[in-house]
Specification:
The complex is a heterodimer of chains A (250) and B (253). Chain A is of the alpha/beta class and 250 residues long. Chain A has two domains: 162 residues, P-loop containing nucleotide triphosphate hydrolases (Rossmann fold, 3-Layer(aba) Sandwich), CATH 3.40.50.300; 65 residues. Chain A is built from eight helices and nine strands. In chain A, the strands form two sheets. In chain A, strands 5-6-7-3-8-9 form a six-stranded mixed β-sheet, sandwiched between helices. Chain A has a three-stranded antiparallel β-sheet with strand order 2-1-4, with helices on one face. In chain A, strand 1 and strand 2 form a beta hairpin. Chain A is globular, with a radius of gyration of 18 Å. Chain B has 253 residues and is mainly alpha-helical. The longest helix of chain B is centred in the first third of the chain and has 32 residues. In chain B, helix 3 runs antiparallel to helix 4 and helix 7 runs antiparallel to helix 8. The chains are: A alpha/beta (250), B mainly alpha (253). The interface between A and B is medium-sized, with 25 and 21 residues.
Chain lengths: 250, 253
């Protein structure tokens, strides 16, 4: 469970977000959508204590060590092999060699990277690197998974495939997820709840929607569900509204 | 790749043979004064003599020891000072101007001073080679740490890693990359320091032999020694390249 109350973050005295209230119930998949630069990432950075908030509180029902953060860029260590990268989090948490290697191999296999363990990140494609980053986080079996536009740089086919894999994992393992994205379709097809962040500076939560599509879901089929279209349209309206309302053209 | 790859090497080899041949001929027919431009055969026999009677080895050993010691010392000093300056801004304020000054001057001008302070033995050569290398490495490490990829730092922190993990998995590998990027230059600097130090004042070493050859107007010996030094440095470079390729294998694949 993640509970954010009255959160405000500023960089260089410029208020980026303020008055943010946000809840993700245990085992639920929540998305946070909003225009770029609206401060979506800042919320995740506060939760993971990379940034100190101006005010407000973050409440977690799990220790911070059970929070996995998947970054926008893959940020793998270029000088470590794929297997070493996947095992890194486990090693930091004090697990020892044969176990770390086994678990790293296991996750690489699950994510379709069997046999790639000895390579370096520079030898992989963008999609493969993203899978490695995902394996690194999932190997820690996080109770709460935070994702910052994790698949933004991938092409549509790879992106759909990885999103589906992730969805399967989340449904099977009942991870709690908060996904930050500017891709509305991705948000609707993956989430139980969608939060819309307004336009910055000083952005606030503009709306909250429940996604009434049953699980397990298939990313492509979800788009044909009767609830999908209307919700997507509402999100579009909300985003264009916040843009017009808070950032008027001269 | 194979046939085309060898062609330039063969052409270069032929050009060298041609050059040596022309030089030899011009000296032999008396067109060039062998006093100033001794024929390759004379240089070759001097070199053979140096090797055959064993005179070369103690000198080569002395220079190699000074260069190697200076390389190791310079790396240690440069890396340590670079880390210190990057981690403690107050010390950086003191260190940076000194280093910038040392970087701006041709550091070999310090050689006479080291001879006065440390004598004509190994110590003054070590000191010169060390300072040549240390300044180069200092800047590589100091600037490098400041430009370490912050995304990697944040990644480690969100995985739960503290200072020790950051140093082991981010800072040390990053610093290794920057140091290795300068490694060949450092090897060259270390050798320069050793030879110039010997040139200024010493009782052994290739620089000492060179100084002796020059003062006795022995052109054949001078050229032979220059060739020995070139050959030795080339060997060192190829070793340095292997080390570099191994340590930075993640980058070259």
């Amino acid at each position: 469970m993640l509970r954010v109350r009255d959160l405000a973050v500023s960089y260089d005295d410029q208020l980026v977000i303020e008055g943010i209230d946000l809840d993700v119930e245990t085992g639920k998949f929540a998305s946070l959508v909003g225009p770029s630069g609206s401060g979506k990432t800042s919320i995740l950075r506060v939760v993971t204590e990379l940034v100190r908030p101006e005010r407000g509180t973050v409440e977690l029902d799990v220790p911070l060590t059970d929070v996995g953060f998947l970054f926008q860029d893959d940020a793998l260590l270029p000088w470590r092999t794929v297997k070493e990268n996947v095992g890194l989090g486990l090693r930091i948490r004090g697990h020892q060699s044969p176990e770390v290697d086994d678990r790293a191999e296991h996750w690489l296999e699950l994510l379709g990277l069997k046999g790639y363990g000895g390579r370096y990140p520079s030898q992989l494609s963008g999609g493969q690197r993203k899978r490695v980053a995902l394996a690194q986080i999932l190997a820690l079996r996080p109770q709460l998974l935070l994702m910052d536009e994790p698949f933004a740089s991938l092409d549509a086919i790879v992106r759909t495939r990885i999103t589906q894999e992730l969805l399967d994992w989340v449904e099977r393992e009942h991870f709690t997820v908060l996904l930050v994205t500017h891709d509305l379709e991705e948000a609707v097809s993956a989430s139980d709840v969608v939060y819309v962040l307004g336009h910055g500076p000083g952005a606030t939560i503009h709306a909250r929607y429940d996604v009434e599509i049953p699980r397990p879901r298939n990313v492509l089929d979800t788009r044909r569900h009767p609830a999908f279209g209307p919700l997507l349209a509402k999100l579009w309206d909300d985003l264009s509204e916040t843009r017009r309302g808070e950032n008027p053209r001269p | 790749m194979t046939t085309q790859g060898h062609a330039p090497k063969i052409r270069r080899g032929l050009a060298l043979v041609l050059l040596v041949g022309v030089w030899e001929t011009l000296s032999q027919v008396g067109y060039w004064d062998p006093f100033y431009a001794p024929p390759p055969s004379a240089v070759g026999s001097v070199m053979f003599g140096l090797v055959a009677d064993g005179e070369l080895w103690p000198h080569l050993g002395a220079t190699a020891l000074a260069a190697f010691g200076g390389l190791v010392g310079g790396l240690l000093l440069g890396i340590t000072l670079g880390f210190v300056a990057a981690l403690f801004p107050l010390l950086a304020e003191l260190l940076e101007p000194v280093m910038i000054l040392l970087n701006a001057i041709p550091r070999v001008i310090l050689a006479p001073l080291f001879v006065i302070w440390l004598g004509i033995g190994l110590a003054s050569k070590l000191a010169l080679a060390t300072i040549l290398v240390a300044v180069l490495i200092f800047f590589a490490v100091y600037k490098g740490i400041q430009e370490v990829d912050q995304r990697l730092v944040e990644r480690i922190r969100t995985l739960g890693g503290g200072r020790r993990v950051l140093i082991q998995h981010v800072y040390v590998p990053s610093v290794t990359a920057w140091v290795m990027g300068n490694f060949k230059v450092a090897v060259g600097f270390a050798f320069t320091g050793a030879v110039v130090g010997e040139f200024v004042a010493s009782s052994r070493g290739l620089g000492y032999l060179l100084q002796f050859a020059q003062s006795t107007y022995n052109a054949a010996l001078t050229i032979a020694l220059i060739l020995v030094i070139m050959g030795f440095v080339l060997v060192l470079f190829s070793v340095a390249e292997r080390v570099e390729r191994h340590l930075l294998r993640w980058r070259h694949l």
